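Predict the 3D structure for this chain.
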Amino acid sequence: MEIIAKLGSLLGLSFISGINLYATVAVTGICTKYRLIEGLPPELGVLGNDAVIAVALFLYLVEFFADKIPGFDMLWDSIHTVIRPLGGAFLALLQVGEATPALEVIAFMVGASLASAAHVTKAGARIIINTSPEPFSNILVSFAEDIGVIWFSYFSLAYPRTAFFVTVALVAGILLVMPLIFRTIRMIFSALLFRMKRVLSRAGPGDDVSVPPFHVDAWFESQRKADEKIRWYAKVFAGRIPDVPRFAPVHMVVTTKAVHFFYRRRMKTRSAIVPLEEIHTWKRYPGIVLTRWLLRTSTGDWLFHVYQPLSATFPKDALPGADA
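Done. Predicted structure below.
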């Protein structure tokens, strides 16, 4: 069980430093200096130095306020994309003490990987939250992170055996949601890039109307009915579309007969079709960079996200029912 206890503090501190490195160092240093926890690894004694604690607390205060400002918190996280993983690696190296070079390399890689996983999850979640028009959710999440980092840092030192299993469970959870986080980040950055290109090119209201790319047009030609014509096309992102992962990119083609969704799944091009006669009503929910669409059909609700400028070009008479 001694190895579990050793790994518990090593993994726990490295992991949580990916959320807030300075709070982790400050808590560890204070616990070491004032002996708030008995039996701490002697290698952590360097963090109990007054200068180390003072600098960590100062930087934590800077991050405390920077992390509460929507938009600026994303810049702060981008700056710390290298700092936090290196900090996690340093905390891991510190705890192995006098070890073989191979063990030090392993500790460095494990610490950096854990901190990176936590950092990417934090940064991805912030990008999602910052798309909300109100700032309060960002502030509440930041406060929750502050409390969580302080608590988990102390927990990893005071109860390292339990912290080992909790950290492993947290990492497993992150690995499960990581594909969703990456798809979400890609969707939001794609929307921001689209908006930026539109501003730089000084596009007018009607300049965003696009035509399907060649491979989508070719696929549609193989699927369409004889008298079916395209009325509108856009690249969208799935919300609730059968067999399509959430936030995955999808090509939407609205025709005189149906709404077609073309996407790649398991290395194959697939399609989902909603005939116009099955659509009861449809609705748009404008956001900052994306507009959420809802199609109510006889087979259930279909949800997806459209670039806001493209959504504004949609001809309202292309779908049955009103844009409620």
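Residues 160-200 form the longest helix (41 residues).
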